[in-house]
Write a structure and sequence with these properties.
Blueprint: E1 8-13, H1 18-29, E2 32-37, H2 48-52, H3 55-70, E3 78-80, H4 98-112, E4 116-120, H5 127-143, E5 146-150, E6 153-155, E7 161-163, E8 174-175, H6 180-191, H7 197-200, E9 209-212, H8 231-246
Parallel strand pairs: 1-2, 1-4, 2-3, 4-5
Antiparallel strand pairs: 5-9, 6-7, 8-9
Helix pairs in contact: 1-6, 4-5
Length: about 250
Amino acid sequence: MRLEDLKRVLVLAAHPDDETIGCGGLLQRVPSALVVFAVDGAPAGYGFERKFGSLKNYSEERFREAGRALGLLPNCPFRRLQNRSGAYFPDRHLFENLQEAAASLVAITQEFLPDAIVSHAYEGGHIDHDACSFLANHTARALSIERFEFPLYWNNGPGRDVFQEFRNAQEGTIVLDLSEPEIAIKEKMLAAYETQREIVATFSPHVEKFRPATGSDFGRPSWNAYPPGNWRSRREARAVLRQFSEFPRMANG
């Protein structure tokens, strides 16, 4: 199935704003879409609890922003992954909850019945992005539906972040040529994410790239210089790879 033929699309995004950065134009084009957010968007250790009073307040504000952004589209509600008790998954810890997150995503997908799942590429830029790629792969395989992926960012090794380009180039990349009206709506969607103003400003609203997801070996790193980043990133990267490898029947997506 070609991207342009999709009628019902489920976009699995790690955080509120990822869906707009990566798919804001695509979401305008498909007749019916559902965005599913994977984590609460409120990571500990970055001072958000001081600025917003609590991490819960910060998370709630991010999802109010998501409601305003997606409310600019005619038919694009959102849902959130939850564990068995109904709690949301904490930011940067999705990889520790793969089985419950997978069960939640499969249930939502079975209810929505999309033509395809669209989610993050496996690129080593953020551990929640990679976990979403893993979950999208699992769900697409389990339900025999198409999967497409989009890039957001990754580090090239010497310390430079690369935005909106696939880490591992391959044939089949689809570049959406957004119209001026589509760009204008996408810019309004991005502006709705006021708490993420500096972050979203680093991405171009004109660029959207996708490709059919052919499957990845999630037990191995997607980057050449392993592991990237500082000591915290290195420790998390090792833990993520271990969780991917130990997930039942899914060591080699």
